[in-house]
Amino acid sequence: KVVVGDQDGVVTCFGIKKGEAVPVFKTLPGQKIARLELGGALNTPQEKIFVATGSEVRGFTKRGKQFLSFETNLTESIKAMYISGADLFLCASYIYNHYCDCKDQHYYLSGDKINDVLCLPVDKVNRITPVLACQDRVLRVLQGSDLLYEIEVPGPPTVLALNNGNGGDSGEEIVYGTSDGKLGLIQITGSKPVPKWEIGNEKKRGGILCVDSFDIVGDGVKELLVGRDDGALEVYNFESADEPVLRYDHALSESIGSIQGGCVGKDGYDEILASTYSGWLTGLTTEPVHREGGSGEELKLSQEMQSKISSLRNELEHLQMKVLQEREKYQQSSQSSTAVSSVPAFSVNDKFTLNKDDASYSLILEVQTAIDNVLVQSDVPIDLLDVDKNSAVVSFSSCDSEPNSNFLLATYRCQANTTRLELKVRSIEGQYGTLQAYVTPRIQPKTCQVHQYQIKPLSLHQRTHSIDHDRPMNTLMLKGQFSFAEIHSWVVFCLPEVPEKTPAGDSITFYFQNTFLGTQLESTYRKGEGCFKSDNISTISILKDVLSKEATKRKINLNISYDINEESVRHTLKLIHPKLEYQQLLAKKVHLIDALRELQVHEGNVDFLLPKYRSILEEADQLLEEYKRQPAHLERLYGMITDLFIDKFKFKGTNVKTKVPLLLEILDGCDQDGLIAFFEAA
């Protein structure tokens, strides 16, 4: 039997007989179901169904009879739930609560949003050990209402699961998946964490939304089933004891919200069941589908398969008739004198995240019905980058940036049945504003939803656990009559990945890394003062401008002082230079390709060319592909060096804008020593 909770608040339980879904029970609609878990007494089959809707937890028997309705005292909706015997673990955005037999036991306030929660198996470790997966790239291990310790993980963890479904031999092993597609296993002992393995996201696949352990191969060892937000379904096998190896993968067209292994359709054949965003349930079976046939024989479809196809055809015809009838009904009612126009509601699943690898933002939009088109508009200069998986046709409209600060207008027209669209944009630090996406699905009457995304002043910075304190740092100090909450709101405005809630305590320190250049930033602040340190003068300059603007808006007088380290400019130029050299060489090679190809056509062969030119011709397609994938990359680097030059002298009170053309000439020459000498001599 399979039980599913959906966005309309309906819990459906069904089985499969002869390829047909047979319902067991179905509840009435209500608030959206955020989580669904199976529970029951420890060491017995987990057959009770628990669902979290809003701030309430309901329990159903496997026959569909409701036996529990528990209204929690949470002010926010439940985001994560875990059940172990009589213990119930719930998390709203920042709050964790532990109940035993529906009585409040423990409470914890997290420093950042909680994405998932689980508890180590009590029968194995003889203690209650809850683990929270938090957005700030940390797993928090609790004891009662207190934090036992924190574990740093390589990305924001979205999902937790017990290894092997039971925590492994020790009961202390948990698997985590991150929103940037990484997987890892950590053993959580009573005193410290022991990392076992970690798998990066080499194939640049989507973020991980769900994991399960199940022996789908039938070799007595449970495989790891993984579902991602780009529709990739993966099966990892533990061949060597060290770390899992990818054995199978399958691409679905929508994000996979839940994944389970079990026996559903046919006795003796296990399946992997996945539910996707628009409400589809997909089963992948181990049952051999292809019958063996002779070499020249035509394969005849089995009787069972033929009847299945004809029943599907009938169902399709029935649905098409129903749609036509409803459409006629709508047309008639919309033309009557008492007509009331109704806007069809649809939900959009969106995600706007910074990718560390190429310092670009991914915007993923997913709708439950097919998308007709998406219009993207921005009031700050941004570049749209190519995405391989994107089959939509993009067209750009010219826009006037002066009166209404419009820098980008682009329309993506989607092909039929596209429910998920992925875009990539790259912003410029120091230029901040809003990116808007107007999403229009293929539904009648035409309706559009607008979604807004903030491009922050230091948009290419990403939170990190630690920084290199030996680098030459520039310091910006703020003092004034501002509260802790006020300065925190300014930092939230400037930088991504900072929790909106003001942190507990008197002061806080955050570390960031610039994903494009690799420079770093340390921000420490409390009531009445703030200290920002970076090895990049431009970062300090942007912070100074934005923070003083924000303080002026609130009529707060700021006392700003700064300490500029001359050595940091040379250090930043040395970080930029390899990237600059690589991009200049790439641009030169790309410009030569056409001429070399013409020579090749005229001469018939290219043996007379120097080896370096021959290699350009051999790699021409890859070079062009890379150049196309990173438009304006070289201009970006030129812009950053120019900003660095202007910012260096701005802090000294000199305006050097007249010397910029000279600087650009030196940049074309691509000489690192000459560049550093120019910076120091100007």
From TrEMBL:
Q: Where do the BBS7 GAE domain residues begin and end? A: 344-453
Taking every annotated instance into account, which residue ranges of this chain make up the domain BBS7 helical hairpin?
566-679
Keywords, A to Z, come to: Coiled coil
Coiled-coil residues are 302-329
Domain (BBS7 platform) ranges = 461-563
Q: Which GO terms describe its biological process?
A: intracellular protein localization; non-motile cilium assembly
Gene Ontology annotations for the cellular component aspect, listed alphabetically: axoneme; BBSome; ciliary basal body; membrane; neuron projection
Specify the BBS7 beta-propeller domain's residue ranges: 1-286
Which PANTHER family did the record assign? BARDET-BIEDL SYNDROME 7 PROTEIN
- Protein's name according to its UniProt entry: Bardet-Biedl syndrome 7 protein
Q: What is the lineage of its organism?
A: Eukaryota, Metazoa, Chordata, Craniata, Vertebrata
